[in-house]
Amino acid sequence: MENKIELPMRYPPITSSPPHADLLSVIMTEADSYDWIMMNYIQLRMALNVPCFAPCGDFERYHETATSIWNDCPWVSKQVISREVISRKWNSFIEFVIENIFTKNYVYVNIDRYYIEAYDDYGKRHFRHEIFIYGYDIESEMLYVADFFENGKYSYSTVSFTQLEEAYSGIHQSINDEIGDFLSGVHLIKLRNKTFPFHGAYDRNVWFCADVMISRIKDYLSSKNESLDDNVWGASLYGEIKNRLILLCNGTAMEKVHLDVRAFHVLYDHKVMMVMRVNYLFDNQIISDKRFMKEGEKIRDTANMIRNMYLKFEIKSDNKILFKIIDLLGGLQEDEESLFGEIINVITAN
Asked: Can you give the pTM of this predicted structure?
């Protein structure tokens, strides 16, 4: 067994949701995965009963669990090992991790952030969260991990064997417990061999179809409700966010409005993916006008500015900032609809 292994990772374009950030970190190490990626991450949903967006991504339907996206991506395989089996078959969780990293399995697991120094919660509060393990160094007794560490930013870091063992043990087996295991076990994720499930030579046309992509963009623009639920879908989220900002302007307490910066992180990530998609279409000669790329970058930068303004509001509580955000959101929606409309017209004309 090798003393040190780091499985491949690439920093992802979506960093507002752990499962999506982790998945993209893995599959984007394979260039051909971009075909599948560009067909997804188009639709958005805003859950009305929780103070944040549901995960961003269109996998034909939305998922109610944090782990189901692993099942739908053809670039990875997943298996789940119960904590009970791990405790019976391995001398420690660290031994289990090392053995599986050695066989090229990434490890996705719930831990208590209280015990890990890389988190802001270290030694302050018990808080369960997923952590993604992609490597180990036996000599230094460290693991390579990914999550939202210092200042809540998705990043790659290291954690000692001792701290991860404590953090793993700090999670109770019951998913109903306040710090219970909502993943219901430890998930092993493996990047599939390029010939599987592709059954031979890779064919981009199997995984990317411009007509299907256009259909999904139209679903987003028309706010099509993929699950027939009571949540807000697609471009309707602009209006929902503006309505909540107006409530804040009118003096409604923040805890009753249920809007925090995570909504703006998702909005920004969505525009990052839009720019990637426009560039992909250009690189693959599906569109030829470079103006589309510049317009996409402008939209992305506006979304980032809105996100930063809301962060500023959380510090200063100045309603003038909210009025400016409301105005910018209206322009952002118009620019996005215009860009998507032009791209759709160009592709359908060809």
From this structure: 0.90
Question: Would you list the domain boundaries of the chain?
Answer: 4-30+76-191, 204-349
Cβ atoms of 148 and 141 closer than 8 Å: no
Distance CA 158, CA 156 (A): 7
Q: Do residues 62 and 227 make contact, with C-beta atoms less than 8 angstroms apart?
A: yes
**What is the per-residue pLDDT across 151-197, written as a single tens digit (0 to 9) for each?**
889 999 999 999 999 999 998 765 556 667 778 899 999 998 765 55
Cβ neighbors of 349 (< 8 A, separation 6 or more) are none
Sequence-separated (6 or more) residues with CB below 8 Å from residue 342 = 292
* Residue 252: count of CB within 10 angstroms of its CB: 12
Burial class for 30, CB neighbours closer than 10 Å (0-12, 13-18, 19+): middle
- Distance between terminal CA atoms of the chain? 54
